[in-house]
Amino acid sequence: MKLTLGEIARKLNLELRGDPSIVISGLAGLTDAGPGQLSFLFSSRYKQHLSDTDATAIVLREDDIGACELPVLISEYPRLTWAQVATFFDPKPLPNLKIHESVQVSLTASYGSELTIGANVVIENGARLDHGVVIGAGCFIGENVEIGEGSVLAANVSVYHNVKIGKNAIVHSGAVIGADGFGFEFDRATASLVKIPQIYGVEIGDNVEIGAGTTIDRGALKNTVISNGVKLDNQVQIGHGVSIGSHTAISGCSAVGGSTVLGAYCLIGGGVGIIDNIEICDQVEITALSLVSHSIKQKGRYSSGTGLLSGNIWKRSVVGFAKLNDILKRIRKIESRMKKE
Amino acid sequence: MKLTLGEIARKLNLELRGDPSIVISGLAGLTDAGPGQLSFLFSSRYKQHLSDTDATAIVLREDDIGACELPVLISEYPRLTWAQVATFFDPKPLPNLKIHESVQVSLTASYGSELTIGANVVIENGARLDHGVVIGAGCFIGENVEIGEGSVLAANVSVYHNVKIGKNAIVHSGAVIGADGFGFEFDRATASLVKIPQIYGVEIGDNVEIGAGTTIDRGALKNTVISNGVKLDNQVQIGHGVSIGSHTAISGCSAVGGSTVLGAYCLIGGGVGIIDNIEICDQVEITALSLVSHSIKQKGRYSSGTGLLSGNIWKRSVVGFAKLNDILKRIRKIESRMKKE
Amino acid sequence: MKLTLGEIARKLNLELRGDPSIVISGLAGLTDAGPGQLSFLFSSRYKQHLSDTDATAIVLREDDIGACELPVLISEYPRLTWAQVATFFDPKPLPNLKIHESVQVSLTASYGSELTIGANVVIENGARLDHGVVIGAGCFIGENVEIGEGSVLAANVSVYHNVKIGKNAIVHSGAVIGADGFGFEFDRATASLVKIPQIYGVEIGDNVEIGAGTTIDRGALKNTVISNGVKLDNQVQIGHGVSIGSHTAISGCSAVGGSTVLGAYCLIGGGVGIIDNIEICDQVEITALSLVSHSIKQKGRYSSGTGLLSGNIWKRSVVGFAKLNDILKRIRKIESRMKKE
Question: Quick check: A249 contacting C, CB < 8 Å?
């Protein structure tokens, strides 16, 4: 994993100002980078770090070049360049294109070519794995699951029956796709909760990434749908029958309640709760730890919660919060008295 | 999976108004249903969809029948009927009643009849699996674990030693039962946290469902107890020594702190946090993302948090929240001045 | 697992007041303990339970001895004594010091002595397991992973490539270490999110405990760092490039956003969200379900959120919260009018 600046410039079609023979052996942030590493100026705000970085070369916008005495690669979008150049320095093991001898595979499963299937994987009846699919060790692939070309499942992923995953998906360890949605009906006769069988499946589009420990439930009355380009961080929970529009990104530990429809190009922060049976339009941003308790029909940024306060101030504000209705009444009373005067 | 309306009516003992020979091949919601599908009118509020649904027949209450020109099955509780009829159309694979040859099983484990044990399952010393138990591929069943009649573990479930699971439990993939509770004591001598061994186990009653990725810790000074009929959604966390009363349902991503006692027939929303060492009585409902920071002695509905607001309004309210104590003081001052006048 | 009081006193170097031949067969809390069990008075507040406990003997502080007629072990720190004595009564199975024949191990992996490796474990190229390491059934150990002396992984843990774990770590089932951080850049040309490869790894210090289902992401521009003595409860999420200072404890279901630096000796409650790219100094305490939305430079206790309220009061307070800016304006108006008068 060594490349010259000249090679990097050529591969990414970037202008290089500096010696093309300089060898780059890795990437790091401006303040962490050492000799041999390429770094990035993502924003002019961090310009002051250019003078004291130990990086060997910098990717930056043409506008920022004045501040830099190091060799530079000029990019209109340094973060996109980062995404591209990082692929050259990624130590991630390549698929070995082998089906491990310990794999337990049903005779009725069907396979594309150039598969990589790790040890102790179990593949049930009727499953279909397309060309180039990679299944990590210990994964369970249920009946009639379909996994599209180039998709990669890390170790220990569980996929229940009748789940479809599109092309070029990445699914991280511990993810569970297609477990039963949480559906029960209270039966007065027995004073207990009766399970509603979750008979539909999950449809996942192309270029979707699903984080470690994330769970996507199967549907009860329709499929759960994750559209193309959706990115789900770790430990996200998607309820039954949810539909998520394309290119929406949901950060870690957020949850979407059953049958909710989430638009395209939304950005959902971490720890967000979105209740069931609502609709959220495209391009909605929700900040971390907010509760979305009603439908949203207008794009924009939404939040709930209070700011972080130090202990004593917070306690007093909590007391005040409980009295807010009383506060409003008292102000109204004062105002009406003043009017009379 | 095809049944006539007449067969469904007979099996569920429902009155049919329509041609009993009509074939039903699936279920769907009113607005999604197509030809051959049975649908449901769960509430009179959705009556308007009856006129334009493509469903072939409808389950509804007698009171709602006037609005419907399609064949109908009359049910006092359409949602309960849904739960029942969905079992006929569930494509979930049936247990194959085989013990896979790759299963690693201790000689001292004991077995009921008609077990289904998937590939690569590990069963440790002294474990006991009763009649009809199903263990999915890749599960780990620790020492002295007991699993009651008819219980089903999906793939990749981990059960630590000395956990008892009752009858007819359903445990979804990625669930972890019996990991150590989070117990440490700060030791001044070494300025570090000393682990408190979690020497008790977990007792789970009958008819309990445990969602994907849900974790239930073992106890330190007593068993963690999950009573009959409790339903835990995905990614729920139950701390050590917690006791949950029967038929309580907890939605996804909620957490219950150690030693807390939760009553029966409670409904806990998603993302709720319940602190440790408190008691919550029966029939308490907690709305999503609330923090329960003290015991609750009266049944009813409880909430915390602010409503969802759009960005700018929210920021100003957050400023106001921090000043609530000040607001109260200023109102009191105004009021006392007015009295003097 | 039976010890006499005399043996316990000798092993822990505690003063015993009572018959040293009394046999102890277990531990329990004061109100749960039965004959043969040792219990603990953790705080003088619970003294009243000493008169009606069925425990056979009590660990307590010298100051509390007056209230107790049972045999006692005197300890300055009863909770530390609990941590020590519980190790004698822990039924946790001991490692069997065997490498199971089903283990799939790369030829280039290297091993210390006295390893225990469970069934169906997969160990990839270049991995290194030091003396006494225990790997539970079904674990995946990626390329070049290093695991230090005495560390224990429970069943079904997934460790991606280039992760280093120190000595005496405990990692619970379902944990995922080294999955990709959540890093994407929006590409206007394709109107989609481009993945930023996460090319760095994870470094975990000594004596770290990692809970069930907890996920620790690998870094994008630097390693994710978990320092010595850190304790992470279940279902915690640690973002890419995060650094956590030594002996910090994080309770269940909390999440730390990417590149955030968390100090030493912090106590983070359950369900807390800490946003990305901030710094939190040493000895900060955050209460449950708080959102930490900015850096913290002063040690102390911090909170966000409202108190728990019953449904109707809460609804009115939520209305008031949305009007807080308006409330402030109205009060200012009233005050300025009063001044004029």
Answer: yes
Closest CA to C228 of C214, C211, C248, C212: C248
Contacts 24+ apart (CB under 8 A), C249-254: C249/B182, C249/B184, C249/B193, C251/B182, C251/B257, C251/C288, C252/B182, C252/B215, C252/B237, C252/B239, C252/B255, C252/C211, C253/A253, C253/B237, C253/B253, C253/B255, C253/B273
Nearest CA to B39 among B4, B91, B81, B6? B81
Note whether A161 and A140 are within 8 A (CB): no
Contact assessment for residue A103 and residue A124, using Cβ atoms and an 8 Å cutoff:
no
CA distance B323 to C3: 59
Residue with tokens 């409670």: B266
Residues ≥6 apart with Cβ < 8 Å to B282: B245, B263, B264, B265, B266, B299
Q: How far apart are CA A69 and CA A52, in angstroms?
A: 10
How many other C-beta atoms can be found within 10 angstroms of the C-beta atom of residue B167?
Answer: 18
Contact A330 B325 (CB under 8 A): no
Average pLDDT over residues B135-146: 98
Across-strand partners of C262? Answer: C244, C280
Q: Which of C145, C198, C221 should be substituted to probe chain A, the one whose Cβ sees the most A Cβ atoms within 10 Å? A: C221
Touching subunits for chain B (3+ Cβ pairs under 8 A): A, C
Per-residue pLDDT of chain C (341 residues; tens, 9 = 90+): 899 999 999 999 999 999 999 999 999 999 999 999 999 999 999 999 999 999 999 999 999 998 789 999 999 999 999 999 999 999 999 999 999 999 988 878 888 999 999 999 999 999 999 999 999 999 999 999 999 999 999 999 999 999 999 999 999 999 999 999 999 999 999 999 999 999 999 999 999 999 999 999 999 999 999 999 999 999 999 999 999 999 999 999 999 999 999 999 999 999 999 999 999 999 999 999 999 999 999 999 999 999 999 989 999 999 999 999 999 999 999 999 888 87
Phi then psi dihedrals of residue A48, to 5 deg: -60, -20
- Euclidean distance between CA atoms C309 and B290, whole angstroms: 10
**Separation between Cα atoms, residue B51 and residue C140, nearest integer Å:** 55
How does the average pLDDT of chain A come out, rounded?
96
Estimate to the nearest angstrom the gap between the alpha carbon of B215 and the chain centroid. Answer: 12
Distance, CA of C187 to CA of C169 (rounded, Å): 41
What pLDDT is recorded for position B104?
83
B240 is catalytic: yes
Q: How far apart are alpha carbons A218 and A212 in whole angstroms?
A: 18
For chain A, domains (ranges, CATH) are 3-89 (3.40.1390.10), 157-302 (2.160.10.10)
Q: How far apart are CA C178 and CA C193, in angstroms?
A: 21
- Tokens 């949850």 sit on residue: A255
Q: Are the beta carbons of A317 and A311 closer than 8 angstroms? A: no
Residue C323: C-alpha distances to residues A8, A337, B318, C328 (Å): 55, 21, 11, 9
Q: How many CB pairs under 8 A join A and C?
A: 238
Tell which B residues from 159 to 218 touch C, by Cβ distance under 8 Å. Answer: 160-162, 174-176, 179-180, 182, 184-185, 187, 191-197, 199, 213, 215, 217
In 3D, which of A238, A313, A241 has the Cα closest to residue A268? A238
- Distance (Å, whole) CA B60 – CA B58: 6
Whether the per-residue pLDDT at A105 is higher than 90: the answer is: no
Tokens of A107: 């005779």
User: From the centroid of its chain, how far is CA A113?
Assistant: 29
Compute the radius of gyration of chain B from its Cα atoms.
26
pLDDT (0 to 100) of residue C130? 97
Structure tokens at A60: 């930056």
Chains that touch C (3 or more CB pairs under 8 A): A, B
